[in-house]
From TrEMBL:
Coiled coil: none
PANTHER family recorded: DNA ENDONUCLEASE SMRA-RELATED (PTHR35562)
Source species of the chain: Porticoccus litoralis
NCBIfam families: endonuc_SmrA
Keywords for the protein's UniProt record, in alphabetical order: Endonuclease, Hydrolase, Nuclease
SMART domains cross-referenced by the UniProt entry: SMR
Name of the protein described by the UniProt record: DNA endonuclease SmrA
Pfam families from the UniProt entry: Smr
SUPFAM superfamilies to which the protein is assigned, alphabetical: SMR domain-like (SSF160443)
Gene Ontology MF terms in the entry: DNA endonuclease activity
Domain of life of the source: Bacteria
Keyword Hydrolase in annotation: yes
Ranges where the Smr domain occurs: 97-177
């Protein structure tokens, strides 16, 4: 740039003022609190992302457990004595599912169908063998999936890691809800023979 150009530039820029001063900045209002409706919509959208068509959580969103962790879950209303008997392996195992050597996708399909079949055939206690996945690239992957998926079936009342003779922490006892038909039969059986006093 020559001296003439420099002088001309300064002359042209002499009366130019900054667009705004720091004190003239526009302050944005704070983000409003989230409305309950917004929270519900976001939660529903998140569930759509994290769950596949069968309603079970996708592998990417499964909280991982350790290979030797004990799995334990009980819905509200399940009596402590009933849960204790499940935990101790005192119920007859009416059906079994082995997930060894399956991919996560295969395991999810198998478990979904297994629980549906148990409900259809009025199975009350089942055993799922998932292994511990020790020395694997992703330790306890199928175990972690089992822990998450079983909670998502309304028909599953409770589950607990098995006793050593049934696979220990590499297997899980599952207690399923009674069908309406069985529940009525039990009520009738317990009330049968009782006499009303007038």
């Amino acid at each position: 740039m020559s001296d003439d150009d420099n002088h001309l530039f300064r002359q042209e820029m002499d009366d130019v003022m900054p667009l705004s001063k720091p004190s003239d900045r526009v302050l944005l209002s704070k983000v409003r609190e989230q409305s309950p409706g917004l929270v519900v919509r976001r939660k529903a959208a998140q569930q759509e992302i994290t769950q596949d068509a069968d309603g079970l959580t996708s592998e990417a969103y499964i909280p991982m457990v350790k290979p030797r962790d004990v799995l334990a879950f009980k819905r509200e209303g399940v009596q402590n004595g009933v849960y204790k008997n499940l935990r101790l392996g005192k119920y007859t195992i009416d059906s079994r599912l082995d997930l060894h050597r399956l991919t996560v996708e295969q395991a999810r399909q198998q478990m979904y169908q297994f629980i549906r079949d148990c409900v259809k055939h009025e199975i009350r206690c089942a055993l799922i063998t998932h292994g511990r996945g020790e020395n694997r690239e992703k330790p306890a992957l199928l175990k972690s999936c089992t822990n998450q998926w079983l909670r998502q079936f309304e028909e599953v009342l409770a589950f607990h890691s098995a006793q050593p003779q049934h696979g220990g922490t590499g297997a899980t006892y599952v207690m399923l809800r009674k069908s309406e038909k069985k529940r009525i039969e039990n009520l009738e059986r317990h009330h049968k023979g009782r006499k009303f006093r007038g």
